[in-house]
Specification:
Length: about 220
């Protein structure tokens, strides 16, 4: 199911159905953003709250369909098409989770928005990490740096290492959900590591390749 080309449309329909159900029960202003203490600090109109994420899910699904046809490395997509769909379907599933949390909170259910969202981020990273090593060179998906895009060898080695980093970082983020308090600084630090380390590694691998090829 997660590899299906129809998964994104199913997610969009589910999100829209949830919006239709929740709309009459929502207050005129709905909390749509929370601070690091899990307290709401951003609000949207009821209409915007029920339409933004379903529309975003549908728009992203459309972008997913277009990207292979406009990518200069589009010939590589058939080599990892199932992984490509799975990664984006994971993102769409996470967007649905956020929408569920916003709607549930808006209609009055006692949900721990911060914990659920952080857990979802961690699980998404674990999912992506498990399949990142299968992504072939392209311009839109994966660890795209000047160094990975200039060398297929650097691309593949960076993605193999990056996969481990995402799984480890995502797992650690999931575990923070079970800590009593003050988890957001830890989560932010882990996200920074997950984002920065693969970029640095790609540069170091490229530099080593340049030294070897120049010797």
């Amino acid at each position: 199911m997660m590899r299906s080309r129809w998964f994104g449309y199913v997610v969009a329909v589910v999100a829209a159905a949830l919006s239709v159900w929740a709309y009459p029960q929502l207050p005129p202003e709905v909390a749509t953003h929370w601070n690091v203490r899990g307290e709401p600090d951003g609000f949207s109109s009821r209409f915007w709250a029920v339409t933004a994420l379903p529309a975003g899910i549908l728009a992203l699904r459309g972008v997913v369909a277009i990207l292979p046809s406009i990518d200069p490395k589009g010939a590589n997509y058939p080599k990892f098409v199932e992984t490509y769909r799975l990664i984006f379907n994971g993102v769409l599933g996470f967007m649905l989770l956020v929408h569920v949390v916003i709607m549930a909170n808006g209609v009055g259910y006692p949900v721990r928005v911060d914990r659920i969202t952080v857990g979802g981020i961690g699980l998404l990273l674990v999912l992506i990490g498990n399949y990142l090593g299968r992504v072939e060179p392209n311009w839109f998906v994966g660890i795209r740096t000047p160094w990975t895009l200039s060398s297929d060898r650097v691309w593949r080695r960076t993605h193999r290492l990056g996969a481990w980093i995402l799984v480890a970082g995502g797992s650690a983020i999931v575990l923070t959900v079970f800590l009593p308090a003050a988890t957001m600084p830890i989560v932010i630090g882990l996200l920074a590591v997950v984002a920065v380390v693969p970029v640095v590694v790609s540069y170091l691998l490229w530099k080593r390749e340049q030294r070897v090829s120049g010797s």
